[in-house]
# Entry
Amino acid sequence: MRKSLVFVSLLIAVLALSIVGIGAQETELGPITQAVLDRGELICGANANLVGFGVVNDAGEFEGFDIDVCRAVAAAILGDANAVTFRPLTGAERQAAIQSGEIDMMSRNTTWTLSRDVTWGAIFGPTTFYDGQGVMVPTELGISTIEELEGGSICVQTGTTTELNISDRIEGLDIELQVFPDAPSTWDAYLSGRCEGFTTDKSGLAAFRSTAPDPGAHTILEETLSKEPLGPLSPQSDPQFAEIIAWTVFGLITAEEEGITSQNVMDFVQQDGESDEDYISRVGANVARLLGQGNNPSGSYLGVANDFMVTVISQVGNYAEIYERHLVPIGLDARGVNALWTEGGLLYAPPFR
Ligand SMILES: N[C@@H](CCC(=O)N[C@@H](CS)C(=O)NCC(=O)O)C(=O)O
# Structure
């Protein structure tokens, strides 16, 4: 009698465990995730003209902070950070690219706004870079406020929040806006003296200034005109794919929080013959969950490899590594609000449990 009770309890426990296991492992893939797997490649809308964030290098390859977010998603789904085709997009081309389904996702210094969320039919992922709009002027003008640009003009790119914010800001001021279709033409017009001011996200100002013949000849005014939360987005047609993007970004942030890097990630993996108990006491339960080690479901919830974050971190690095690789070289040395919450910043990822 006792024996059979034990047996029945065991059976119930095994059944319950396998249901949890099946639930976690048999996540139904959405149409975009399935298409990425079938094609063996992720198609990512990107910037080709913004050094630090998204740019084509001398070897003809896309590189930058936003580019690495696409690479991290490719590593999560396909196990290969290089399995990405990048589609260059200007500001004004973004809406159609998301709506037509010609790209799987976009990671291109794009601000999350209410109207874009709704009218583009997008799901915005977590903010990867908290930004704000600024104005740059030639240092020789010796001015420190937008008001002092009265009588002059500001160069701005169309199809951007930048254009809308600056129009609001100069309302009632005698400042002309000169509008251009893409970044190179806007920047060239400013450099050639057609406008006294150049405006975009402050990260973009830093990026462009770093490419100027004499960066010291340009001053970024102190005022921040707006909030520009920049991050990846994908079509509303596939919430399951959007979850993969979101948790890949959260994983990059959590890896930084846990001190796991591309160099040391294998030290945090469970070793052959290491008991679950020894492993957890060595790395901690949070790390075991992030990396999908032992019995911890992680990627299986998302329909990707359970240890997907091991692949992402080893191939792309954690958030800090991506930041340092691409943004420190353009002069964004101070993390500011883009520091971890534990260091006074806004980066805060929900728990992997
Ligand atoms: N974050 C703003 C501005 C984004 C934007 O497109 N900025 C310009 C100037 S930095 C840019 O990246 N242009 C690159 C291009 O069009 O080639 C938005 O989402 O509208």
